[in-house]
Amino acid sequence: MQRYDEPLEETMKTKMQMCLSALSLLVLAACGDGSSSGNASRQVVTVESIVTNAAAIQAAAPATVGKSAPGDVAGLLAYVPGTAPTRLVVFCHGLGHTVEASWYPAVVDFADADTAVVTTNYRDNDQLPVLRAAHDTLAATLYAKQRFPSVQTVYLLGVSLGGAVSGTALVEAAHASADGRGLFDYWVDVEGLSNLSEAWAEGTAVVPEFAAYIEEETGGTPVTVPDEYVRRSPALRAQEMASLGLRAAVVVHDLNDGLVVTNQGHEMALALLTAGVPVQVFNVLRVGDGQDPGTTGTGALAGFLGLDDPNNLIRLAGHGSEADYAHPVIRTGFEQLRMMLDGTYDETTPYAEHAVDDG
User: Fold this and answer.
1) What pLDDT is stored for residue 207 in this prediction?
2) By three-state DSSP, how is residue 315 classified?
3) In 93-197, where do the E strands start and end?
């Protein structure tokens, strides 16, 4: 696989964000302030721009009908210099986001002396590149593991489209690892897309452009290329996840999702349960006062009918933006990942459902 370390051209906004984040970490390290919900040890974290290429992974994986041409993609790698981390966190972003704009604070926050963090953009980042993005994620994961051979445990978190990307990467890892085993031990699926055929049907009925992206990605419709849809539908591949060594998973979804219908989260959770992977489900009910509920299903319907969103009164949680770290869906996903890293997450319970209510 072709890999590079050279710094990338970055936007002025990203440069300023990096400088401010690095400055704040340096100040905190100097002051020795240990109060933090995240990187409590406050070591100075280095964030590198990286470039990876999934050509070798695609060459080893089964051929695909849809788009698959490899190319260089940019990502971020965070770590504490001079350490040998035993844990790696991998983030998968959603549609319309970039790791530089939406994920930089989380990358810094989760990196510490024992934890490296990697995340990558995708080829055709503004479309729906589930399989290509999964291979790009695997390339970034292998890059990080090559940089830090001390890594023993890998944690994977995906949001929205990143749910489909991360879930697909879990299974496609069999073609990327040297021994045909999985690369990931724990998975947090946040408002994730898990059944691509359902998403195509919904898109065909409501947002034809969305359905067209899916057809371009897969090379056809669920009728003409059903295997391509299954390959990109994590809810249909849970048994493979279990056989590749996935130890435990978290599924977080909101009740009033206007982008990824809430049943997709439960489909994923029940598939994991059936496959024997311990899974905990977090149903996010309402947002708090002053909190943006996100993209709501009621809002989409009301907009179609020319009405006000009735959710303005009941404030059910909708699809949260992954750049909104205070949104209860996004926050819950990060909290559960933190518990996994801290060793306080219960991975022995076969199945459990929880309610999260900020209202």
Assistant:
1) 84
2) coil
3) 115-120, 153-159, 186-190
Sign, CA dihedral 3-123-89-272, equals: negative
pTM: 0.88
Pairwise CA distance, residues 329 & 233, whole Å: 21
* CB atoms inside a 10 Å sphere around CB 105: 13
Tokens linked to 82:
């001079």
Predicted pLDDT at 38: 47
Place of tokens 């999964």: 134
pLDDT < 70 regions, the chain: 1-42
In angstroms and rounded to an integer, the radius of gyration of the C-alpha atoms of the chain is: 19
Strands (E), 105-174: 115-120, 153-159
- 138 to 43, 55, 57, 225, 254: CA distances (angstroms): 27, 11, 8, 24, 28
Q: Which of 165, 140, 30 is nearest to 78 (CA)?
A: 140
Taking the C-alpha atoms of residue 343 and residue 129, their distance in angstroms, rounded to an integer, is: 33
3-356 classified as CATH 2.70.98.90: no
Q: What is the pLDDT of residues 68-82, one digit of tens each?
A: 889 999 999 999 999
